[in-house]
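Ticket #4471: structure export looks truncated?
Reporter: QA, pipeline team
Priority: medium

Steps to reproduce: submit the single chain below to the structure queue and open the exported record.
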Amino acid sequence: MSEKQKLAVDQVKVEIPDFYNFGAQVDQYAQAHPEKPSLVVVNPEGVSQTITYAQLAAYSNRIANGLASLGVERGDKVLVLVPRGKEAYGIYLALLKLGAVVMPGSEMLRSKDIEYRINHAGAKAVIAFAGLIEEVDAIRSACSTLSHTIVIGGGEREGWLSLDQLVEQAADTFESAQTRSDELAFLSYTSGTTGGPKGVMHVHGWPLAHLAVAGTHWLDAREDDLVWATAGPGWAKWVWSPFVSVLGKGATAFVYQGRFSPETYLTLLDQYPISVLCATPTEYRLMAKVHDLGRYQLKALRSACSAGEPLNREVIDTFRRQFQVTVRDGYGQTENTLLVGTFVGMEPRPGSMGRPSPVVNAAIIDEDGNPLPVGEVGDIAIERSMIALFKGYLNDEERTARAFRGDWYVTGDQGRMDEDGYIWFEGRADDIIISGGYTIGPFEVEDALVKHPAVAECAAVASPDPERGHVVKAFVVLKEGYVGDEPLVQELQQHVKQLTAPYKYPRKIQFVTELPKTTSGKIRRIELRQMEKHNEA
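Actual output as written to the record:
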């Protein structure tokens, strides 16, 4: 490694204790600061509710006791499919206190997605909001390990227990399990280029590692902050910021339960003393385009972060000019945490991902695992001993092994490092599509499309988009007798939305007579991606 690249090497050492439980840590803070607000929850109608740390601790304890009464034990896996709100915080804390394994899941998942996760992990219970009852019921009989289904926000349903009823008579005290730091705590699923989603394993010590790597140096949440991190439960980013980085710092989480609207978001930032904002690049782009931004003051905002994909310089300049705040980019993955970013006190370089965290040793490496000279494009890699790195993919030793190259974890993204240690993103090294902050595997889209009677074969790739960064585009070869017209495009899009999470549907569809393939018959998605990039230029 060159002297220049050594600028990015570990500068801070962090020790993780042998035993740790994040739920117990939050309880300790609640005992010391019972009246401190933990959450400010605003519903779509604008009605707000404040929950203190003491109330959140007691609520999560009642959930833990209720789940324990059903037989949910240490090590049991529980799929959680709930939207933003008090329930998400309470359920996650309760499961951690029990020593059970949290399986975060988006409330947008469909039956096939849910069935895969339950069976792949051997989940014992599902906790879901009422809108997913039919999706879960449709696959219940195919899930042999599923013993309990619990619903929030709904009344009596056959085969379902109400969370409200479960906790109604439960005690509001609970002694957290003394979990080992290397014990499995989170099992998050992320899309792969082939096959089903990968089960990413994180341990109980991971929240401490995350706070050391990213929470302190990047989000910069402090005890007196009202923090709005817009990610929804079910995503790794929700665990990172709204959950661990806020509660782990004793700050207050701002939770908005309505749908995204740039005007609504700006109004809320204007009305509430939100001092820290963490949003997706798409949300920032759309807010920056709102007419007459001067109407909004955002007087309390002091820290703004963006993660998921590179943020346009124009957006950064707009927020700096209008609100005197610099939106700081960040880069990380479900498999780790936020690794690279414009950290507190750093000079931002618009277009760059930033520099590695002071706790992260990163490099640009070649195919043999050797660090490349400054300026050369290669694979972005992280030293495999990094404290917040995942412990592997569940039940998949082959995929786990492929993620490493010698002493390095290979992210799957390519970039280059400049003479000051800043990393510049050059593109994906694989076929994964990142759209509006969502990670989408082409296989999932293609698998849904080919189930339509009109589709002979297809390929899904990322297509550049000014608002979402990229969108899913499908190249479709039709069976004989079908016509590739606009009605069929809409029919195929609806078909995909019904079979898998709606955010995965192809926003663009192009009908072709054949797909580029290797001599062995494999689709060459790289040719299609390059064609899309060329079309943008």
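Status: closed, not a bug. The export was complete when the record was re-opened. Leaving a note from the reviewer for reference: DSSP finds 15 helices and 26 strands in the chain.
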